[in-house]
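Hey,
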Amino acid sequence: MKRFVLFITLALLLLGAAIVQAQSPVELRITWYNDGTEGEALRTALDQFEAANPGITVVIDDIGYGDPNVYHSTIQAQVEAGDPPDLARVNNVALFVGSYLDLRPLVANVDYWETNFSEQVLNSLRAGAEDTGIYGFPLQFTITAPFINRTLFEQAGIEVPSDSNPEVTWDEWAAVTKEVADATETPYAIAYEPRGQRFWGFAISEGGMWFDAEGNFTADSPGFRTAAEKLVAWNQTGISDPAIWANLPDGPNLARDQFINGQVVFLYSGSFAVGGLASAIGDTFDWSAIPNPSGPGGSTGSPGGSLLVGFAETKHPAEVAKLFDFLTQADVLGEFSVKSSFLPGHLGLAQQGLDFTANAEILNALSAEIPKLDEQAYRLQYSQYAFTYNRPIDNRLSQVIAGELTLDDAVAAIQKDVDDAIAATQTQ
């Protein structure tokens, strides 16, 4: 009898401990930065998650993004110290490959992930071809694409070519926008934001190959040269304003200002600019997003944005996975995208479109470009050397436009700049 009582007592004690443990509150922390209202949108989603999961709270640690290197190095230091956040918003994803939490054995439906998130994005978080893990998803997606001033087309009495045929070449756009500019006495036809990332898709569409057979970056391909020659010619013949590329830090703002002020027909920018453009333009003129121009290499913009990832050393992997399952639901992610005015990285949502509260037609037109993205564009964006590739393209093309370098010299200089920068990181 005593043994039975003792057994019951121990069982009750163990049950009580289990209940206490099960009821112990769990706090998850997300390292974060804000571009706009997405922090508020995330908080709304997290409040819903907490209401559905009593005992789990989620804290947003907003450490800012004034310098992307500082932001990511902060996370890197935490990872190296063995004390990473449970989750983090990152865009330089290659920095942390090998440190991510594998969600594959933890999430409710792996097929859902593999159907609704691009394989290229999922691969960007993996350590190699043998790695099949699922480590995160694109919480926010951006894409480069052009905008046009429709009012100027109407005033010129010229049809917008993409309205009847989405596959319009760069040469055709240069010709028709020049015609519109001349007819309406608009100073410039095309404003192209001076950023290497904006140039990736242009070069690919012209048949450019950014990687050689061994997977190494290469600046020297016929497609790159063709795209660069066209960009230079536009600036030399008055189709574009060379001041945009002469002022690299402020170049994107100058290009956007020209579009806002009705001084250019066609702006090459991207989804990240929509909110600012819409606010500044108001009802001054009618404008829209159009498909990326076509060429022998197809039609593609460049992806961007940020991913939400978990870290392997979290003390709460099950709860992290539960949060991922919640945030990736189509209705939750759709609401986040609508509230933040970000394009959805969820392919199903991108294809069906969303009821954005503002600029819905423009944002959904940009979303429709996501399935067209070229594999090279993903490789560039999610490489650990993405920023390393960009800056030499900016700098050297600006020198060609200014007449300081030949294109041959610029191609060689871009390659040397990239190779030297990569070598420097490997010796640190």
